[in-house]
Amino acid sequence: MSLDRALGVIDSLLEILDEADKRQSDTTTTAPSSTSTKPTTAAESTPAKPFEYIQSLDDVEESQLVQLTSDLASLKEKWKQAGLVENDELNEFCNQIGKVVEIESSDDTLQIQWANYDTCWVPAFACGRAPSGAKLTIPGTNNSWLNEEQAVGKEFDEEKQTSNENTNEEERYLANVEDEGVIIGNTLRVTNDLKLLQSRWKTADLDAEEKLDKYVSAVGTILEVSEDHDTVKLQWKNDKSTWIPVQACLDAHGADVTSPTD
Description:
Number of helices: 5
Helix content: 25-40%
CATH architecture of the largest domain: Roll
Largest sheet: 5 strands, antiparallel
CATH class of the largest domain: Mainly Beta
Structural class: alpha+beta
Strand order of the largest sheet: 4-3-2-1-5
Order of helices and strands: HHEHEEEEHEHEEEE
Radius of gyration: 35 Å
Number of domains: 2
Number of strands: 10
Strand content: 15-25%
Shape: rod-shaped
C-alpha cells in the first residue's frame, strides 16, 4: 500500500471515531437521570394551615362567626379554665360553627348561637374565626362544616318546620332580650317544640319544672325582662306569670293571650 493511500485510510478512521464521540456525548446529555426526583404537587408542597385560635376578646365582635377547635383535649382544658359547667358531650362541639351573640370578659367566654337558634357559652380561646363562606351548624347532628350543604340545610329546615304551626318563614326565635321584639307589653308565643323548650330552659338556668309541656305554644304578655339569663316574665290569661327563656319564644304578632295547659 502506498504511503498516500495509507494516510487517507487513517484520516477516514479518525473522522469516524470523532463522529462516534460526538454521538456518545449527545446521548449522555439528553438521557434522563435515573435519580431524578418525583415532581412535587401543590398538596405536598403546601402544609395544612394550622388552626388559628382567638388570642384576645378585642379580636371578637358580636354577629361574627367562629369555629370551635377540633382538638378535644384543648377544648376540655379551656372549658375547665373558663369555669363553665361540666359537659360530657364536648366532642359534639369540635369543629362546629356558631354566631357570637354576647361576649363576657369576666371569664373570657362567648355566647354563640347555632343554626337552630339554640345558644351555648363556650371558652373564647377555644375558638377561631370561621372559614370564609362558612354556615352555622348544629352540635350533635351530622351537619359539621365538612358537609354543610347536605346536613346544615336539612337540620335547619326541620327546625323551622317544628318551630310553630302558626308561623311563616319570616318569623324566627328571639335572639336575646335586646331583640326588637322584646318590649314590655308585647305578646310572645312559646315554641311548640318541647325538646327545644327544655334545652333552652336549662341554658337559662331557670328552676326545674316537671311539666314544661304546659307552656308549649302558650301566648303571654311581657311583664319584666331579665338580662342576666335572657329571660322574660310572661303574664298569662289567668293572670299568673312565669319566667320563660326568651330564645324559646317568637313574636306573637298581637295574638290573644292564653293560659298554660294543666
